[in-house]
């Protein structure tokens, strides 16, 4: 082979190799990194705010008559009647407020179809002790009890002969909801009373 022919052959080999290299480079897949996202803190679910410390000063902060009517499923006539309780050092109670719903002008508070009470105690242990005493007293009188949840808090539902009672605690605050079985039948008591208790424990 002449030197000139050999040079042309070698150049062809280099050109083919170069084209093959370009083809190989073109076939290389493009890798695009997948972006990662950090969930927004606003998407996280949080428990509703609860009353801690001082109790509300009026029934509107516990539940309006309209809210009670909505929960019960029937109109509760009249305005809520407030009865301020008192501190009782003997049982560690620092404050108390009771609201009565569905009363007529001449009705006594004991005749209220629905009653909601809040009380604050010196500490969470004392509050739990008072709730446990209420549960024991109701069970001793023949009430059927069952555990319930009120939001993130624990409570007890008690079905007696004439009334349904729900008691629960949040830290050093207790809530009690009492409804006559005429106003809230036993089959609906858990749903209705839990809704009312949850509202009462949520400050406005």
Task: Map the helices and strands.
Layout: H1 3-27, H2 65-72, E1 81-84, E2 93-101, E3 114-121, H3 124-140, E4 144-150, E5 153-159, E6 163-170, E7 173-180, H4 186-200
Antiparallel strand pairs: 1-2, 2-3, 3-7, 4-5, 5-6, 6-7
Helix pairs in contact: 2-4
Short descriptors:
single chain; 204 residues; alpha+beta; seven-stranded antiparallel sheet; 4 helices; 7 strands; disordered N terminus
Question: Would you kindly provide a brief summary of this structure?
Answer:
By secondary structure, the protein is an alpha+beta fold. Helix content is 32%, strand content 25%.
Explain what you see.
By secondary structure, the protein is α+β, with helices and mostly antiparallel strands. Helix content is 32%, strand content 25%. The chain contains four helices and seven strands. The chain has helices at residues 3-27, 65-72, 124-140, 186-200, and strands at residues 81-84, 93-101, 114-121, 144-150, 153-159, 163-170, 173-180. The protein has a seven-stranded antiparallel β-sheet with strand order 1-2-3-7-6-5-4, sandwiched between helices. Helix 2 (65-72) packs antiparallel against helix 4 (186-200). The N and C termini lie far apart (101 Å). Residues 2-7 and 9-47 have low confidence and may be disordered.
Number of helices: 4
Helix content: 25-40%
How are the strands of the largest sheet arranged?
A: 1-2-3-7-6-5-4
Basic shape = globular
Rg from alpha-carbon coordinates: 35 Å
Query: Strand percentage, roughly?
Result: 25-35%
Category from helices, strands and their pairing: alpha+beta
Order of helices and strands: HHEEEHEEEEH
Q: End-to-end distance, in Å?
A: 101 Å
């Amino acid at each position: 082979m002449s030197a000139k022919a050999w040079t042309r052959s070698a150049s062809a080999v280099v050109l083919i190799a170069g084209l093959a290299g370009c083809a190989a480079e073109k076939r290389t897949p493009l890798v695009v990194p997948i972006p990662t996202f950090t969930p927004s803190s606003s998407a996280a679910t949080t428990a509703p705010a609860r009353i801690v410390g001082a109790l509300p000063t009026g029934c509107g902060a516990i539940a309006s008559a309209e809210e009670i009517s909505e929960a019960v499923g029937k109109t509760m006539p009249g305005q809520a009647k407030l009865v301020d309780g008192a501190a009782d050092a003997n049982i560690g109670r620092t404050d108390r407020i009771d609201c009565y719903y569905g009363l007529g002008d001449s009705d006594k508070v004991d005749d209220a179809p629905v009653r909601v009470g809040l009380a604050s105690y010196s500490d969470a242990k004392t509050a739990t002790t008072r709730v446990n005493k209420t549960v024991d007293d109701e069970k001793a009188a023949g009430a059927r009890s069952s555990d319930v949840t009120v939001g993130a808090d624990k409570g007890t539902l008690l079905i007696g002969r004439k009334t349904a009672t729900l008691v629960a605690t949040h830290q050093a605050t207790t809530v009690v909801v009492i409804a006559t079985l005429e106003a809230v039948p036993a089959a609906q008591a858990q749903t209705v009373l839990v809704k009312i208790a949850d509202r009462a424990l949520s400050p406005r």
